[in-house]
Predict the 3D structure of the following.
Amino acid sequence: MLDPGRRAVTRGESPVDLTNKEFGVLEVLLKASGAVVSSEELLERVWDANTDPFTTTVRVTVMTLRKKLGDPPLIETVVGAGYRVVNN
């Protein structure tokens, strides 16, 4: 559950403490309603225009976000395309 007004995230009954970038990535992925979101689109929507498009920032942020959200996994990597939220 993501509450943009309070900038709060909970998974089940547990609050999840996220950085601003992790929150932004999760918000974009949830708004995509299961559609694949590319790393480039995440860079454009969550980071600023000066971010190097070849950076591993998105991959690392998604990795830490997955760890914080716990199991069952919520974010799926679509090889060669990007990321999406899966329905569990």
User: Anything to note?
Assistant: The chain has three helices and five strands. The beta strands are 2-3, 8-11, 14-16, 75-78, 82-85. Residues 2-85 form a domain with the Arc Repressor Mutant, subunit A fold (CATH 1.10.10.10).
